[in-house]
Amino acid sequence: MRSVLRAAVFLAVLLSATVLSIDFAQAAGKPKGKAEAAAKQAAPAVNKGKAPASRQARAAEPAARKSLTKAGSTKPAPSAGKPQTAATRNAARQLAAPTSRTSSRHASQLAAPPAKAPGRSLAQAAKKVQPGPASHRLALAEPKKSVRHALASPPDLWQEPGQLAVHSGSALVVAQDSSEALYEKNSQAVLPIASITKVMTAMVVLDSMPSLQAPITITEEDVDYLRGSRSRLHVGTVLTRETALLLALMSSENRAANALGRNYPGGLAAFVAAMNRKAASLGMSSTRFEDPTGLSSNNVSTARDLARMVAAAHRYPLIREFSTTTGARAEVNGREIEFHNTNQLVSSPTWEIGLSKTGYIQEAGKCLVMQARVAEKPVVIVLLDAAGKQTRIGDANRIKRWMESASASGRSPTRV
Fold this sequence. Notes:
Layout: H1 2-27, H2 32-47, H3 55-72, H4 86-96, H5 98-111, H6 118-129, H7 134-141, E1 170-175, E2 181-185, E3 191-192, H8 197-207, E4 215-217, E5 238-240, H9 241-250, H10 254-262, H11 267-281, E6 300-301, H12 303-313, H13 317-323, E7 327-332, E8 335-340, E9 353-361, E10 365-374, E11 377-386, H14 391-408
Antiparallel strand pairs: 1-2, 1-11, 3-6, 4-5, 7-8, 9-10, 10-11
């Protein structure tokens, strides 16, 4: 009821103020436009709660109240505390809150979410964009955890789902007879290569045409103080150069590899220099060697360069034999010790491997290079920077199945 009275007073005061302004304007000879301006100036004073400024305004209150009563009901307006009629409430709402309804309606339109949430449509669009199986998508969504993965592209370079998916950070499959790349992924990325180094070590040793039966001794210089890797070749162990070469290639024995380099004519420095010269002669322009073991992360190369190295090493019968030997017993300090190949695929009856070498240090991840005959085709496979323990093995098996499937369907694997 109070709000109704306030509204009535507001209208009455506004009308009386307008009449007074017109009277004053006519009395002073002023034009009508200035009287209207005076009326507009009088309205804010009423809005601020000031009392009517004239008797006419006070006299207009009962008339305005009476007109309101007639508009809604024949009965007089109810006093404070009594229930209001529906007509009175409607009149009060029309007088007191027309703007508030409009404001609240606009506010609700601004605040209310659209009928179709944008997030939902974006999620549907994202699902359409993501190709390949779930494992592929997870690979696109998950962040890399180490610096060396910064160069890695999405694991599957194929556009159609169900095709070859290689998860190693860098990979290359090359036809050995034509050097055609059947599959490649980051093949030009320069990465640490770990014990893949030992393939070059073996070539440089054999190029010097040493006596393979000459004895060499493991010394304190061959102990790995950089990473603390273990070895069963204790300081003082004497073995032939041939045995050292076998253990370096088959079991990735670091002390054996370092002893081979140290016993090179001119010593270890001359041996490392010969390794880099050999790499340059093979066209391995992005390759650098710092030691014969691969324990140094400064031994770096690319998948492209390593494919050249593997193809060249495959021409050495002794490297082919030693790198694919599944296991051997070697006499160390008067007793026989059994050693095994670090690549489990060489003992698989489903693989025909002509050369093999694995590698691992933290900076390089899991690495694998192989020469193999797959689907009646000789190929060189290079897998670098694999994160999981079995990722490189899984990648090699996926490549093999991919090539065999293509061969069975009468088509050749397509280069990507």
